[in-house]
Fold this protein.
Amino acid sequence: MTTRTLRRWFVVHKWTSLVCTLFLLIVCVTGLPLLFSEQIWDTFVGDDDPPYEVLPAGTPNASLDVIVDKARALYPGQIITSVNPDDDEPAVLVSMAPSWQALKDDENYPDRHSGHWIKFDARTAKVLEQSRPADAPKEPRTWTGIIMGICNRLHTSLFAYLPGRLFLGLMGGVFVASLISGTVLYGRFMKRLPFGSVRTDRASRLTWLDLHNLLGAATLVWATVVGFTGLVNELQTPLFGLWRVTDVRQILRPYASLPVPSQDHLSSVQAAFDTAAKAAPGNEVTGLSFPGASFGSPVHYVLWTRGATPLRARLFTPVLVDARTGELTGAYPMPWYLRFLEISRPLHFGDYGGMPLKILWALLDVVVIGVLVSGLVLWAAKRKIATDARLQALGYELDDTSELVPLPHAAGEGAR
Amino acid sequence: MNAMSPDPLSPQVPTTRHPVAVWPWPIALGLLTIFGLLSALLGQHGVWLALSWAALSIPLIVTVACLFKAWCRTSSVKGGQS
């Protein structure tokens, strides 16, 4: 490699790293509590649900139609928007609203929440819990809630919604570029140094450089995978939008102009769940939204099904069931770019291999923080040398000139 | 203490004069990481999960071992001088 090429790689590494380091630090630090959010909620807030009735094992679930009828009886005149069986508790969440129009109007009034929910025991169809009425005094926020909320929004969008997400996605791309250029530089600087040696007997700058190289080499692949899948995750809004205006629009075109039928005359919800389970074999049905929901069809139940294995658990296949007749319209596997997104999620979250994997994820994250910090130290020290040299060139006498001794290994000499 | 410190990395000659093979270690650690990431994702069963945990711990263990070695060397040098 010529000195010129090396200098170019160095400049690429320096600037890509400088651009993304601050945001990477934010993301790495806020990611730690998010990784253990389930445990943190359980420890500090706990489950305030009433305990479930103890029933003999194998008690069958109540028909969802019974649950839906009960919800309607509780709020006559209102509409049901969705029915979602809980993932790991024997509960069914039924969401309701005064009307679709009321929900749409909410978007213009941030303080208004006309939607509400009722939680039923899936087996007895008894009401377990209801959402707080919109006019009730707000529940005091817990510290856990505040801290986790801040972490979540910082981590995903820097409090800047979609622009923040896209920006962080861009930073993920810059991070990957910085990792690639860093790998090239590593190959150059480690030519005469055995792997993993940390020189502590010379200039402290060399110790930092060796640390940076060691920690970076050990976590290179992990950081690349998590950085890249993070980038893909940040693109989810535009990717889903693309799907919506292409495939979804195509599928729904024949029905788009139909009126939303009254909920009194819709086919059975339980039958729709059964039909969807048959239409997407190997998948479990995780929820149903009623005809008229935004982005859905005016005359179909949209059922969301997902794979049962960790790899496919985040691969959703929507199924359309005609709510007027109860007949299957079709199952629509997602396009490749959304499948890729769904595979990217477990690889970013590290939530697919039990607690040990989460702990490893956290430790690797801490090592990456070490790479970022040592990189910053190297850059700051370099800047100090450059500034001192300039000051000396201008004729200033500096007390501390020890840093100006030429470095034996001349790391990153191409910076200036 | 000095007797314990490994010879090839003695404090006086930390760098070798001859080029060393740069890539075997990073490639090995990278392959282990990839194996660890995928085995839990594709395997799901007990053995594959355990293999995943083992494979992903190795880069961390190697890092800690290298840092520990450097730390021992520093303290042995300081110990020798005082």
Summary: Residues 22-81 of chain B form one domain. Helices of chain B lie at 24-43, 46-81. Chain B has one domain: 22-81. Chain B touches chain A through 43 residues (CB under 8 Å).
